[in-house]
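Summary for the steering committee. One of the milestones for this cycle was to obtain a three-dimensional model of the protein with adenosine-5'-diphosphate bound, which we needed before selecting residues for the alanine scan. The sequence and ligand used are listed below.
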Amino acid sequence: MQNVNLMAHRITVYSIIALLALPIMATFVYSLSSHWGASILPDGFTFKWYAELFSDSRFIAAFGRSLFVCVLALVLAMLLMLPTIFVVFYYFPQYDKVMNILILLPFAVPPVVSSVGLLQFYADSPFTMLGTPWILIGTYFTIALPFIYRAVSNSFIAINVKDLVDAAHLLGASTPKAFLFVILPNLKKGIMASMFLSFSFLLGEFVFANILVGTRYETLQVYLYNMRQTSGHFTSALVMTYFAFIFLCTWLGSRFSKGNLS
Amino acid sequence: MSYVQVKQLSKSFGKQRVFDAIDFTIDQGEFITLLGPSGCGKSTLLRCLAGLNPVDQGQIWVDGENITDLSPQEREMGMVFQSYALFPNMTVAENIGFGLKMKSTPAAQARSLIQRFVELVELKGKEDRYPHQLSGGQCQRVALARALVMQPRILLLDEPLSALDAKIRKSLRQQIRDIQTELNLTTVFVTHDQEEAMLMSDRIFLMHQGEIVQQGSPESIYTQPANEFVAGFMGHYNLLDKQVVKALFDLDSPHKVAVRPESIYVKEEGRQYEAHISSPKTAHVLNHQLLGNVIRYKVQIEQQEMTVDLLNRSSERLLPAGSRLELLFNLNEMQPVSP
Ligand SMILES: Nc1ncnc2c1ncn2[C@@H]1O[C@H](COP(=O)(O)OP(=O)(O)O)[C@@H](O)[C@H]1O
Ligand SMILES: [Mg+2]
């Protein structure tokens, strides 16, 4: 009885996975085929499209811009959040609940709405923000906060911050030293997990990138969108590369959050 | 003058008063236990001594120096936590050496100190293990070594044994006491376990709702409880109303009277008893608990229920419920206790 049930569950799960994987597999095959028109199977296979993609300087530049924007936003968010979470957990543990709600606020407003709001707000600011990477970095910074707060605060919960810092104090360490030597090394997992997960999320973010900056600072998402008119084989290769990269980041993130890597 | 003097110490969290104007002194090398039920303020008092909680009022003096306003870093106190509080990212040796590193002790000197204290707590060969590779008892010994290596003026222990299983607890409490005696360390130990307090301490400070209700040697606290709370906390004392004492023993007492369960005997036929032994009282057994070397009977004498501890001698059968007993009381051991 148990086994039959288990089998049924397995079959359901695997069929769903297969169904979801089908378009991805098709895209993958399409990106590798030289021509796939009227026939059931492609006429032949080639790496031509990938070669074309990786030799396109516009692609490389867009990829570089995306990396720059996402990494900078994440590093800034992490630098702000680590001391903040430490202060919450060591001095005001009762405010963890409040932080959990506050941190979700960027998600409460749909991106289309908040990007229009940002457009209006920064339209008549003394510095030009719109169309520069800085506004995107600022926006991504707020989007990354909930990911970082959740993952890092889980790492904090796993250790007894209060007693560890108290013990370090009694052994002569100042609070910054206690944080650096005793707390920070134990947050590695949470930091890595949240970095990779929010990175793969930000890399796929399109609405803010397109509305706030668009082609004036072409990031990977916007490049992908602008390339939609070219050969389907080429865009498939682009999508597959993109997908592989995000998959790698997500996988690394979940490996870290499960603690298989240390 | 005493080594440690605590004067009029008060502490509140917001509106909640934890303790108010506490006074006590501790001599050098003394082993003091703060004993009391959970929530009575033991940990808070200990953390105030360590400087981890600021005090509202009062002073703490150690060795003729007022340390009330010193930070925890400057107090030269060692502390062991119930949670061990070992640094998970550091090995045993690195944990023990952390305080030395903060003091910038020269490497060679630090190494030999770490070695000495690793041996003292019997963890030789485990220097390179991480805390998650150690048992609870081993963790707590690392925590002890980490505090001791700093040669603290006072060692503070907050329920260090409570998270351990019974067997480890027994051996570790002996080990702590031995090390404390060997190093002649002034020690304040916190526990809610009266057996632990009795076994380890030079003196016990018994706390109740933020007050030290009685202090003294384990023996004096056990045999002369100052009030009903102490009698209830220290053993399985029978508390008899003064009317019952008058009726049963024809004694006048201003308060309730505490009678230890082990000071009650079964009358042996044909034996002569001294004058301070009461006349025999007829009791009926209600139930019993087998505690190993002792059998604890719940009995009824007239309208009064009492607890009686009898040695578990193989020659005597367990008395079933309903059995009749002739019990004798030692009148010298009737302890009047204030409410
Ligand atoms: N950081 C704190 N904030 C507010 N109240 C506290 C804090 N620490 C302890 N208390 C309160 O002080 C009282 C004494 O606690 P504690 O010293 O931990 O007792 P014990 O160690 O004897 O169990 C308790 O009522 C507890 O709720
Ligand atoms: Mg406590």
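Key point for the committee: The pocket of magnesium ion (ligand 2) is lined by residues B 42-43, 159 (CB under 6 Å).
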